Amino acid sequence: MSEGEFTDTHVHLEMMDDIQGVIERAKNKGVTKVIAVSSDVNSSIRSIELSNKYPMAYSAVGIHPHEATGTTEEAISEIERLAENSKVIGIGETGLDYHYTHSDKEHQLRSFRMHIELASQLNLPLIIHIRDAFEDVLDVLRERVSNNVYGVIHCFTGDYETAKRFLDLGFYISFSGIVTFKNAEVIREAVRNIPINSLLLETDSPYLAPVPFRGKKNEPSYLLHVAEIVSEIRGASLDMIADVTTANAIKLFRFDKQRGHILTMDN
Fold first, then answer.
1. 3-class SS letters over the chain
2. Would the pLDDT of 20 be above 90?
3. Res 261 pLDDT > 50
4. Segment 119-150, tens digit of pLDDT
5. Average pLDDT over every residue of 51-77
6. Residue 16 lies in a domain
7. CATH number of the domain within which 232 lies
8. What does R_g of the chain's alpha carbons equal in angstroms?
């Protein structure tokens, strides 16, 4: 067991049962910060409520590419209002998903660009979801990357050469429980080669539980299993992985920078 402090940079906290228990189990495994990432306006509101309730939780607000048909000007204005909350430290998750295309590509691209514009305006990092869409995400980011656009590629599933293209744009790369799967050697090679100061950890709870919990509901306390594999791949101590990845998360998300107001049910 590591004595370091871990940060889970991607949790869908509002989707989980027994949230109090989830938080306590995470603390017991050394996870001291979690980012509650959102999928639409309603989940953004709920994520903020939870981050206001639990000191170790922070939130990101945004509309997932699956829900991109709902990314209207009014919805983005509401996301912008929600981002005034002092516990909101990122915009997302946003991005492109061409695997399921629950929203068509045109709506996804429009939504992604709107989120990029908002993140740039607010000087907040983007949390980017990509599935079967690396080239289009890179093209869209290159349109705006010089204009205060930065963030993390969450749950990275590509190879090192693809990771390097995002690193060259100044983005961090985050790895989930997929790195523990038997057929994930390409992803492990990316873990092995990217600069340690660009690496983040996440669970993507309640999805993608790592081995030995694969197929079960995931939760932040399982982040330790992701960290152990990363430690093994990098030939580094678990404490070092905890310290460095948490330092990276603090640098990117600026947890202690208080902004705006606290959202309550009366706002």
1. CCCCCEEEEEECHHHCCCHHHHHHHHHHCCEEEEEEECCCHHHHHHHHHHHHHCCCEEEEECCCHHHHHHCCHHHHHHHHHHCCECCEEEEEEEEEECCCCCCCHHHHHHHHHHHHHHHHHHCCCEEEEEECCHHHHHHHHHHHCCCCCCEEECCCCCCHHHHHHHHCCCCEEEECHHHHCCCCHHHHHHHHHCCHHHEEECCCECCCCCCCCCCCCCCHHHHHHHHHHHHHHHCCCHHHHHHHHHHHHHHHHCCCCCCCECCCCCC
2. yes
3. no
4. 999 999 999 999 999 999 999 999 887 678 99
5. 97
6. yes
7. 3.20.20.140
8. 17
What's phi and psi for 126, nearest 5 deg? -90, 140
Q: Is residue 220 part of a domain?
A: yes
pLDDT score of 260: 44
When pLDDT is averaged across residues 225-251 and rounded to a whole number, the result is: 98
Cα dihedral sign, 39-43-48-53: negative
Residue 260 corresponds to which amino acid? Answer: G
Whether residue 10 is contained in a domain is answered as: yes
Residues 198-208: tens digit of each pLDDT? 999 999 999 99
| Torsion sign, CA atoms 80, 200, 87, 97 | positive
Domain count within the chain: 1
Q: Residue 155 carries which side chain, given as an amino acid letter?
A: C
Residue 189 has pLDDT above 80, yes or no: yes
Tokens 């869209």 sit on residue? 140
Q: Whole-model pTM? A: 0.94
